[in-house]
Amino acid sequence: MYCSIRRYQLIKGTPDLVREKAETVFMPRIKALDGFVSYSVIVTGLGGDGLPGIVTVSVFDAAEQAMASSKLAAAWAREMSAFFSLEKLGEESGQIACQAEAD
What we know:
41% strand; four-stranded antiparallel beta sheet; globular; alpha+beta
């Protein structure tokens, strides 16, 4: 499995609005991609400048599928600019080396 982790700073809007739009607009789209395993949105709290941080984690069966999710996320963020604004701080992706799950 492969993971793509994207870090953002929320410039305009609220974390609740990002969550709502992720659940109602983005999640149905990303779930439709081939190889989809999971998607999470994490609110990391306030940064040094007082702005909330947002981290997203996408997990897919293959690397190219995880990369496709990054393109989808970028297009979605642009589409949502009337509701909120995210500044992308970074992105990391790679193969999941090990993972634990509940029994």
